[in-house]
Amino acid sequence: KKSEQELKDEEMELFTKYYMEWKGGRKSGNTSYMNIPRFYYRLPAEDEVLLQKLREESRAVFLQRKSRELLDNEELQNLWFLLDKHQTSPMIGEEAMINYENFLKVGERAGPKCKQFFTAKIFAKLLHNDPYGRISIMQFFNYVMRKG
């Protein structure tokens, strides 16, 4: 029978052998995994005060940046005023409509925060079976309020 120390030594030897094979085998094969950016970082433990403070601060800065991107009440009112001013007739019932040309004019005047909403892709997304190729002003405004 082997002593306990001999068993531990043998176990460590096998572990080292298999670990080196595994590690060495990975390096010799496909190394594309090295180009994948790290996307998971563990949460800091309770005793890692500095890391916790850093996490809190970075989250606060992120939320401040996101809130600055949101449209405030005055900007929303201005957007509604511009959309209403540039509506394209005829109305469909009570629904005010806007064509692409006027849509782009409003986009130029609405301000930098609104610029992201005045794209051909968004116009096409909201375009339904209008014979004049227009979108509903109310649908567009609701879209901006949901996304912005």
UniProtKB/TrEMBL annotation:
Gene Ontology biological process terms from the UniProt entry: B cell homeostasis; cortical cytoskeleton organization; microtubule cytoskeleton organization; positive regulation of B cell differentiation; regulation of dephosphorylation; T cell homeostasis
Subcellular location as annotated: Cytoplasm
Keywords: Cytoplasm
Source organism (scientific name): Chauna torquata (Southern screamer)
UniProt-listed InterPro entries: PPP2R3C
Gene Ontology terms: cellular component: centrosome; cytoplasm; spindle
Keyword Cytoplasm: yes
Identification of the protein by name: P2R3C phosphatase
Superkingdom of this protein's organism: Eukaryota
